[in-house]
Amino acid sequence: MAEIIDITENRQQAIDAACKVLGDGLPIAIPTETVYGLAADATNPAAIAHIYETKGRPQFNPLICHMADLEMAETYADFDPLSRALAEAFWPGPLTIVVPLKAESGIHALATAGLDTVGIRVPKGFAGELIRAFGHPLAAPSANTSGKISATSAAHVQADLGEKIKLILDAGASDVGVESTIVKVEDGKLRLLRPGGLPADEIERVAGVKLVRPKVASAAIEAPGMMASHYAPGAAVRLDAREVRDGEALISFGPSPIANADKARVVLNLSETGDLAEAATNLFDYMKRADASGAATIAFSAIPDEGLGEAINDRLRRAAAPRE
Ligand code: TXA
Ligand code: MG
């Protein structure tokens, strides 16, 4: 099992222990405001290789590189005016911006899957402090086995990857609960590569332009990690359920009743009041709990496709997609 250090009680001890393991070229699990990340030195190819190995992740997926601030990010990549404006408005926070890498930036090609661009994010709070102390960017996908549900607590990470890593830093449940929104400025257009923890309309308000959403068919090429089946629980997933069928678990949303809810193995409401931010925070934990009930299928009631609902519905469609 991995050692777990509570960062609220032992902040400096956590930073020291983390810098030691990272410096040895090994990955550790870190809390971010979106989900827990499996972090390693983005300039060290052996360390990045350990991330792929630990997650069982296909090597062609580029990883998000986490920086302490925009100034640090600008030493590795070039920011056009719109990307810089978004960084200034939303960093630290749940926004990843894909920008061209500088030549000889030091970020290893294993982290970017050989692309000439890099996805950069400045996380809020402790993770940013850790990066500043460590002095190198951290490549960090979500801290879960590839294709499975992302981890939003130290206990999730321990259960999934505890045998494979040395250290988990614990900051309690992740605030946002879904991964960052990913955008890229290209040919004068602002493209949404992945909906996530920063709602699209907030980005559009600052950018002054509409986000261009990918056609489903091109999404795989634009954001190579966005494979159809992802975030998958053990159980099958049924979306837009209006009733519970025999043996199902129910994950509902809002105050509207769902028929036959009393028949469900377990009933979990993402947000009784219909608050999408609360629903995002609860999403992955409730999927794990519904899965643990032993239900063959998890039925989800419909979730509005606005604000954070876009990211929630994206994750649910992937969870429901045919498995490889
Ligand atoms: O919230 C998050 O973003 C979490 C936490 C830990 O920060 N991280 C995360 O990282 O979700 P990761 O590595 O799982 O996300 C990688 C995805 C890729 O699958 C791809 O879709 C996109 O980011 N990406 C990264 N670099 C890219 C690039 N250069 N061009 C296009 N897409 C890129
Ligand atoms: Mg992931």
Structure characterization notes:
The protein has two domains: 3-207, DHBP synthase (Alpha-Beta Complex); 236-320, Threonylcarbamoyl-AMP synthase, C-terminal domain (Rossmann fold, 3-Layer(aba) Sandwich). It is 32% helix and 18% strand. The chain has eleven helices and 14 strands. The chain has helices spanning 11-23, 45-55, 70-73, 81-90, 109-112, 126-134, 154-161, 200-207, 216-222, 276-292, 309-320, and strands spanning 3-6, 28-30, 37-41, 65-66, 95-100, 117-121, 138-139, 167-170, 181-186, 189-194, 236-238, 249-252, 267-269, 297-300. An eight-stranded mixed sheet has the order 2-3-7-4-6-5-9-10, with helices on both faces. A four-stranded parallel sheet has the order 11-14-12-13, covered by helices on one side. The protein has a two-stranded parallel ribbon with strand order 1-8. The longest helix is centred in the C-terminal third of the chain and has 17 residues, at 276-292. It binds threonylcarbamoyladenylate (TXA) and magnesium ion.
Q: Compute the separation of the termini in Å.
A: 29 Å
Weakly predicted, low-confidence segments: 217-222
Number of helices: 11
How much β-strand is present in the residues?
15-25%
Determine the fraction of residues in helical runs and give it as a percent range.
25-40%
Q: Provide the CATH topology of the largest domain.
A: DHBP synthase
Radius of gyration: 19 Å
Q: Label the CATH architecture of the largest domain.
A: Alpha-Beta Complex
| Helical/strand content category | alpha/beta
Shape: globular
Instruction: Give a short account of the largest sheet.
Output: 8 strands, mixed
Order of the strands making up the biggest sheet: 2-3-7-4-6-5-9-10
Q: Name the hetero compounds present.
A: threonylcarbamoyladenylate, magnesium ion
CATH class of the largest domain: Alpha Beta
